[in-house]
């Protein structure tokens, strides 16, 4: 196991260019120590904006630094959602699939939830209209805030690095 | 030769050990280390662990650090011995459940019941057997019935330490020089527990008394001879005595192999080194877990919620009229990854248990979560109870997740358990995503059903029960880097598969008419969820035969991730009083599949009374020869926006039978054209298609525009949704009852719900009289606890976290308390009207 994979290998991971046997090796091996930094740096190169990425937050979404103390959730298309500790879904577009007809687009008859018991909430980025999350919940359920990262503890105590700031990047 | 003489000759070491134990007893010494009683030794271990923050107070891993090669050799040898015990003893069993699916596992435990090492297999029981041992210690088994060399214990009591009654465990103590040095334990899933209905996990009972025979941490033999009282007892408490007898020999074989391996290790390395290894291995496991978390996850809070249905309203053969109602499981799931890498898992807000067999005990929840963690966080040989010491579980007492009531039924606890942990996969995946370990990301798993079960008089004219473990093979959730594995394994048994049809037919009078991949069972997404499969079965040479179904129906329990869709939910398809026999005789077409439920294909090939309905659970019903039963095994959930899936992959999905052609357009916005009617890529899929790339590109652009037109800002939707809740529009009684139950269980959930929707003060859902009565009935039932002497580890159930943090830090920020639970001596109210049978 490499203590650290070559940058090209991580680029291939990010760009979905690895073969199954390579991925399987990565799963089986001990985990490389600098994965976070490498993936973050590759992603930073791939996006069209300059805000420094603090963490990859979810597929297409990042926590980025706007200033020393303002961190926001931002889509790779450039759409900016909210502060990093707020629920980005509140700023998204939503479509609720809660009729038999809408379920049948995705599932055959009898193989989908009953609309009275469960609805599918589809959350889209207002910028690029990418489907970012689908939640399956009982009608009437509050929005779920899935992830509140403890960024300070992560940077200060786990990886012992300064949290990226716009000045550093500039 | 008498049995006693034979034992003395066969087991001289055991006899010598027994004499030493008796000598110590005469001197007033216990079987613990240094002459302590086992209870004293356990209490000391708890105290040292709590005071130091390290298992058994071990600050330094001296053996591991000073003699690392020897440490690894010893641990690997133990692990190898456990796997060997499993692989060898598996051949003793006769049920395909064990022999084909490997529903068996072994563990080696410290005297206090912490697992040191485990075999492969159903390692949910790493911790259930641990709880059973601790139960015996904390309830003074050393005094009565005594714990001595050669003793044999059995347990399947869920309230002591098990998932459900059909997992029967055998435990034997291992002694050296008059001291208890370890326990060997083995557990397997048996075919029939003697429940009110045939099969291992009956579904029609409303309470524990219908689950089948429970054996509560019972001593069943000494000098490695089973008591006559046991041998004459349990075979008559099952419909499949011969299978259970062989299962017991299986477990005994494995446990004795483990005991011999430990004796050999002690002879080779000395008892002190073995003791040191057993302590350090647990502490090493504890540290390893935290290290792995710090290396691969992010600290913080992860949240989700899952649901599953158990619909009983109008079902036949219920044992109590008050069980005639629909249940929905609500599992709010919160994972707090602390700064030290430890886990806090909370189900605060879970709703009340119900009069159904899907309730859970803490041992079930903890065991279930281990299975998941060992396939993600600790995918190596160093699995043991060390991880348990890095996790706190907050399981609200009185909820379905921790009933603390010995009246509740648990026969298929997995229905709720598997569904409830679905968000935990996603919590871990979100952490892996943020750290860049994308190869570890998994959208979730399958609802591990359908369970084909039943019984009656079989093809050999014998009373028999069946429990098809084709369900050990389900689709797996999509990975970030690949599609989910189709028809692969069930989460509770990483090594499971669908089994050979011919082997199932040897033990089940249910010939296969067809077996195929089932389209659209995996969730749609950039990476598709692994597809499930289906078997079409008929019935042959039976009398008074019952069959039933078990799985999700009105709700899908396995959500997608990052824009992927949930896996499909289940349905029931049977045909009775059919013309199948005539079709065989006339060599006419008959249904082999139900690949597309909308096609009418099944109905066009069979005459009879056809039941097709979207529920997942049915209670036992009579089936006769040539009736038909669809066994549909579920798929996994999807990951990523389906519009990002490569159109060529969608084409392959069609040819492989994973996706019906019409859903290429609807779900993926991929335009395909049929170019050949006759070609066959898959035995069940007729035809060949091609992608129209230009039309696909155009359709995908249009679909994005449609999204923009159809979707609305969440802020607007929240306003509308709030009005809908206040007006209670469209919210059905079953849903409102579930919310009301969670709010009565949890002041925190009630506050959260009210605050989120900004509901008027005093707002409560208006429930039907039946729903009110149902809640009243269960809330009044109170607690009936099993453990008189709980362990320190149980404190987390009560919501006691570390001193320096609230028990559930972020979401539930006020002091947690169960809002509305009555005293244990309360009883439930008047039953609702209707037929009730008095055998449960």
Automatic annotation (TrEMBL), chain A:
Protein's UniProt name: Acetone carboxylase, gamma subunit
Phylogenetic classification of the source organism: Archaea, Methanobacteriati, Methanobacteriota, Stenosarchaea group, Halobacteria
From TrEMBL, chain B:
Compositional bias segments (type: Basic and acidic residues): 10-27, 40-53
Name this protein carries in UniProt: Acetone carboxylase, alpha subunit
One GO CC annotation: cytosol
Cleavable signal peptide: none
Alphabetized GO MF terms: 5-oxoprolinase (ATP-hydrolyzing) activity
PANTHER family: 5-OXOPROLINASE RELATED (PTHR11365), HYPOTHETICAL 5-OXOPROLINASE (EUROFUNG)-RELATED (PTHR11365:SF23)
Hydantoinase B/oxoprolinase domain span: 68-642
GO annotation terms (biological process): glutathione metabolic process
Origin superkingdom: Archaea
Region (Disordered): 1-53, 809-840
Origin organism lineage: Archaea, Methanobacteriati, Methanobacteriota, Stenosarchaea group, Halobacteria
């Amino acid at each position: 196991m490499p203590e650290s994979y070559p940058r090209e290998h991580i680029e291939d991971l990010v760009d979905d260019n690895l073969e199954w046997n390579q991925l399987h090796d990565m799963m089986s091996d001990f985990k490389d120590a600098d994965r976070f930094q490498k993936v973050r740096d590759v992603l930073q190169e791939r996006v069209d904006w300059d805000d420094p990425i603090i963490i990859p937050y979810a597929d297409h979404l990042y926590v980025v630094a706007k200033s020393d103390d303002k961190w926001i959730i931002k889509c790779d298309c450039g759409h900016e959602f909210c502060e990093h500790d707020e629920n980005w879904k509140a700023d998204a577009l939503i479509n609720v699939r809660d009729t038999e007809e809408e379920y049948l687009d995705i599932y055959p008859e009898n193989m989908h939830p009953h609309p009275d018991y469960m609805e599918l909430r589809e959350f889209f980025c207002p910028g690029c209209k990418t489907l970012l999350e689908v939640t399956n919940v009982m009608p009437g359920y509050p929005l779920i805030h899935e992830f509140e990262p403890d960024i300070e503890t992560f940077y200060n105590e786990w990886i012992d690095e300064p949290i990226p700031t716009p000045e550093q990047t500039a | 030769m008498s049995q006693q003489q034979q034992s003395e000759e066969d087991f001289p070491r055991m006899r010598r050990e027994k004499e030493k134990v008796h000598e110590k007893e005469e001197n007033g010494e216990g079987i613990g280390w240094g002459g302590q009683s086992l209870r004293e030794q356990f209490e000391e271990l708890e105290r040292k662990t709590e005071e130091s923050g390290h298992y058994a107070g071990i600050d330094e891993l001296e053996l591991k650090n000073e003699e690392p090669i020897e440490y690894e050799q010893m641990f690997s040898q133990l692990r190898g011995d456990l796997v060997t015990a499993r692989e060898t003893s598996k051949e003793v069993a006769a049920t395909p459940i064990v022999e084909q699916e490997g529903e068996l596992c072994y563990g080696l435990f410290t005297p206090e019941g912490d697992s040191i090492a485990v075999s492969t297999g159903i390692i949910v029981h790493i911790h259930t057997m641990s709880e059973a041992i601790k139960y015996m210690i904390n309830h003074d088994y050393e005094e009565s019935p005594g714990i001595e060399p050669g003793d044999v214990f059995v347990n399947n009591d869920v309230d002591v330490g098990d998932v459900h009654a059909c997992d029967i465990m055998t435990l034997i103590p291992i002694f050296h020089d008059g001291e208890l040095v370890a326990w060997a334990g083995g557990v397997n899933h048996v075919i029939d527990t003697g429940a009110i209905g045939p099969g291992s996990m009956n579904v029609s009972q409303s309470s524990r008394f219908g689950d089948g025979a429970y054996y509560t941490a019972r001593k069943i033999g000494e000098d490695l001879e089973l008591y006559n009282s046991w041998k004459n007892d349990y075979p008559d408490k099952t419909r499949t005595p011969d299978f259970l007898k062989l299962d017991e020999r299986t477990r005994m074989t494995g446990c004795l192999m483990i005991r011999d391996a430990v004796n050999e290790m002690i002879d080779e390395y000395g008892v002190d080194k073995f003791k040191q290894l057993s302590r350090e291995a647990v502490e090493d496991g504890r540290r390893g877990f935290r290290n792995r978390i710090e290396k691969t996850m992010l600290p913080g809070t992860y949240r989700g919620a899952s649901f599953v249905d158990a619909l009983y309203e109008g079902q036949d053969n219920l044992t109590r009229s008050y069980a005639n109602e629909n249940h929905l499981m609500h599992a709010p799931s919160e994972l707090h990854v602390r700064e030290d890498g430890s886990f806090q898992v909370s189900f605060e807000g879970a709703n009340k248990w119900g009069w159904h067999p899907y309730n859970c005990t803490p041992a079930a929840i903890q065991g279930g979560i281990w299975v998941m963690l060992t396939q993600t966080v600790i995918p190596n040989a160093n699995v043991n109870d060390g991880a348990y010491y890095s996790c706190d579980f907050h399981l609200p007492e009185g909820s379905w997740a921790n009933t603390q009531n010995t009246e509740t039924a648990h026969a298929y606890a997995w229905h709720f358990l598997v569904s409830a942990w679905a968000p935990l996969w996603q919590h871990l995946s979100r952490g892996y995503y943020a750290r860049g370990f994308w190869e570890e990301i998994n959208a979730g798993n399958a609802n591990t059903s359908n369970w084909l079960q039943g019984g009656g008089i079989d093809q050999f004219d014998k009373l028999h029960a069946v429990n098809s473990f084709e369900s050990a093979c389900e689709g797996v959730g999509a990975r970030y880097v690949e599609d989910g594995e189709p028809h692969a394994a069930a989460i509770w048994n990483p090594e499971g598969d669908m089994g050979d049809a011919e082997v199932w037919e040897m033990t089940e009078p249910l010939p296969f008419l067809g077996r195929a991949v089932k389209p659209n069972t995996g969730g749609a997404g950039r990476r598709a969820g692994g597809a499930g499969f289906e078997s079409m079965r008929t019935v042959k040479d039976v009398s008074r035969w019952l069959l039933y179904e078990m799985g999700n129906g009105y709700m899908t329990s396995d959500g997608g991730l990052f824009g992927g869709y949930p896996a499909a939910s289940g349905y029931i398809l049977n045909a009775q009083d059919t013309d199948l026999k005539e079709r065989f005789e006339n060599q006419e077409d008959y249904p082999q599949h139900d690949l597309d439920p909308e096609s009418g294909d099944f109905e066009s090939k069979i005459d009879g009374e056809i039941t097709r309905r979207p529920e997942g659970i049915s209670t036992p019903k009579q089936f006769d020869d040539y009736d038909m039963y669809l066994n549909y095994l579920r798929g996994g959930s999807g990951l990523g926006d389906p519009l990002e899936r490569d159109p060529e992959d969608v084409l392959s999905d069609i040819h492989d039978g994973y996706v019906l052609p019409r859903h290429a357009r609807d779900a993926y916005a991929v335009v395909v054209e049929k170019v050949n009617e006759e070609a066959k890529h898959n035995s069940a899929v007729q035809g060949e298609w091609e992608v129209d790339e230009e039309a696909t590109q155009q359709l995908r652009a249009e679909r994005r525009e449609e999204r923009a037109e159809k979707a609305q800002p969440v802020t607007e939707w929240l306003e509308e949704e709030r009005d809908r809740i206040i007006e209670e529009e469209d919210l059905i009684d079953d849903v409102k009852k579930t919310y009301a139950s969670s709010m009565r269980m949890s002041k925190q959930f009630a506050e959260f719900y009210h605050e989120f929707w900004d509901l008027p003060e005093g707002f409560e859902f208006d429930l039907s009289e039946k729903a009110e009565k149902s809640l009243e009935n269960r809330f009044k039932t109170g607690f009936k606890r099993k453990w008189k002497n709980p362990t320190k580890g149980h404190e987390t159930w009560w919501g006691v976290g570390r001193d320096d943090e609230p028990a559930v830090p972020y979401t539930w920020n006020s002091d947690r308390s169960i809002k509305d639970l009555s005293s244990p001596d309360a009883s439930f109210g008047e039953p609702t009207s209707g037929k009730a049978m008095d055998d449960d």
